[in-house]
Amino acid sequence: MNFSYFWLEITYISMTKIFKPANILLFLFAFFIIACKTTGLDSNQKKKQFGKMAWMEGSWEYKCPEYQMYEVWKKTNDTLFEGRSIMIIGQDTSFTEKLSITGGGINIFYNTATDNEMYNTRSSYLLISSKGKKLMFENKDNKEQSLITYQRKKAGLMIVRMEGMEEGKNVVEQYAMKKSATR
User: How far is the C-alpha of 102 from the C-alpha of 70, rounded, in Å?
Assistant: First the structure.
């Protein structure tokens, strides 16, 4: 008996045992379970994460001599916060933006939508960090505002920080917003 023929016969028998339809299905099932567990958040993790964001709910304001800024956040369900941002200069509303934090698929996103005469934009930012009372959202494609951070400093005080590039220079805007009565 030729050794190579003998080796091929053993290999064929081994492979037919390994690649039975039941074994293939078991392998695919195990692969699918592992893949789902290692990418993103499952629904319970998302609900827990949204629970940690409860401090954002309510009305927030920032006032300076030139303008006032307001953000209002409401938790709509276990994986959705809806909000609105308004900037007022003098007595005129100069800017409004619809905001949301959603649990889309395996990730959490911060979304903005602006519809007015000067701007008509929509952007989504991926939650990249959530430590304590600090949330960091990133959109690398949006150069003007690539990173948005919300941080609760203490009860009734939230820091909103936006970072990006403008004319080749790093630009940072930061607002210390105080909790206010409903607007």
Answer: 20
Write the CA distances from 53 to 22, 56, 128, 151, integer angstroms: 45, 6, 15, 10
d(CA 167, CA 137): 22
Report strand pairing: 92-102 vs 169-180.
unpaired
Neighbours of 104 (CB within 10 A): 14
Residue 149: other Cβ atoms inside 10 A: 17
- What's the rounded Cα separation, in Å, for the pair 22 and 174? 58
Give mean pLDDT in consecutive 10-residue pieces for the chain, a chain of 183 residues: 52 54 54 48 82 94 95 94 94 91 91 79 93 94 93 94 93 95 63
Strands (E), 20-65: 58-63
The radius of gyration computed from the CA coordinates of the chain, to the nearest angstrom, equals 25
What is the token pair recorded at 156?
């009734």
Exposure b/e, 114-123, CB count within 10 A at least 16 = b: beeeeeeeeb
pTM of the model: 0.73
